[in-house]
Design a protein that fits this description.
- The chain has 311 residues and is mainly alpha-helical.
- The protein has helices at 26-53, 60-77, 80-89, 96-129, 134-137, 140-168, 184-188, 196-229, 234-240, 244-265, 272-281, 285-297, 299-310, and strands spanning 3-4, 7-9, 13-16, 93-95, 171-172, 176-177.
- The strands form two sheets. It has a three-stranded antiparallel β-sheet with strand order 1-2-5, with no helix packed on it. It has a three-stranded mixed β-sheet with strand order 4-3-6.
């Protein structure tokens, strides 16, 4: 790892700063982060147990919900333990290749979550707009193919990001990352070489993995509401609005995603401690809230939770 002209050539390791400006209170910030992480693990694990143990919930909507819960557990676990190590145990160092692997995990799981939200939106679209054809369209084979597709798509799309960093970027200004985890743009910005290709592919990947999903989800829910409010009987309208939890999850995920995405690239006027704190919360808020949203708003799951605790 030779140092020339103030730059580091292919560092073997990197060091996290954490939250710049809040280093003295990071130990206290870690407490709510840890509490939310534990609640997310418990809530999503309970969701998975209920869906797996109850045969009546082995339907496409609940299978996708189980995938969402498993993805939330994996996503938060790929970030929070290291983050708490920085806050509480003063363990800021990470190997360069391990940092790249964390980048791959984070963006892969984010892509999977986006794909699962799209699958859930399409499932609700068919169930509400074409109820008589739902069972013939969303067969077990189709659900399996969708699960495979939403998993492989981000895993394949993210891999070139790592190769571009590993093969193109050799010189780095510093080994210090002003962040609590390995974010793609935070790592790219450390390089002294031209990073235009890295930024361009990052944008392209984000559009393919998230932008298209957002457009299709919006179109699906727009058509759902058009269909619902043209329903002649009010009772049917209220029954069809069971998709409201999906919309809540959809908005909380994409609003936080867009804030994190754009502030990493352009919003230099936002103080770094606010940006990094909110970006870190982005990986905790959806996994923390999703079990509550679906547990409270979805009658079948709510009944199974009550039955489980009562028995």
């Amino acid at each position: 790892m030779p140092i020339t002209n103030g730059t580091v050539f292919m560092p073997s390791g990197l060091t996290f700063i954490g939250i710049p400006g809040l280093e003295t209170v990071q130990c206290w910030i870690g407490i709510p982060f840890c509490a939310m992480y534990i609640m997310a693990l418990m809530g999503n694990s309970l969701l998975l147990i209920i869906i797996k143990s109850e045969p009546s919930l082995h339907e496409p909507m609940y299978i996708f919900l189980a995938m969402l819960g498993a993805t939330d557990i994996a996503l938060s676990t790929s970030i929070v333990p290291k983050m708490l190590g920085i806050f509480w145990f003063h363990l800021p160092d990470i190997y360069f290749d391990a940092c790249l692997f964390q980048v791959w995990l984070i963006h892969t799981f984010l892509g999977i979550e986006s794909g699962v939200l799209l699958a859930m939106a399409l499932d609700r679209f068919v169930a509400i707009c074409y109820p008589l054809r739902h069972a013939t369209i969303f067969t077990q084979q189709l659900v399996t193919n969708i699960a495979l597709g939403v998993t492989l798509r981000p895993a394949i799309l993210v891999s070139p990001c790592l190769l571009l960093i590993k093969c193109r970027l050799k010189h780095y200004r510093t080994k210090l990352i002003s962040h609590t985890y390995c974010e793609h743009m935070a790592l790219v910005k450390l390089a002294t070489e031209d990073v235009y290709i890295n930024k361009f592919y990052g944008l392209l990947r984000a559009f393919i993995a998230g932008g298209l999903d957002l457009i299709l989800i919006t179109l699906s829910y727009t058509q759902i509401f058009i269909t619902v409010f043209h329903c002649p009987r009010k009772r049917h309208v209220l029954r069809h609005l069971t998709c409201v939890p999906h919309i809540c999850v959809f908005f909380q995920f994409y609003l936080l995603a867009f804030f994190s995405f754009f502030t990493h690239r352009s919003a230099t006027y936002i103080p770094s401690y606010i940006h990094i704190t909110l970006s870190s919360l982005y990986f905790l808020v959806p996994p923390f809230l999703n079990p509550f949203v679906y547990g409270v708003k979805t009658k079948h799951i709510r009944d199974k939770v009550v039955k489980m605790f009562c028995s």
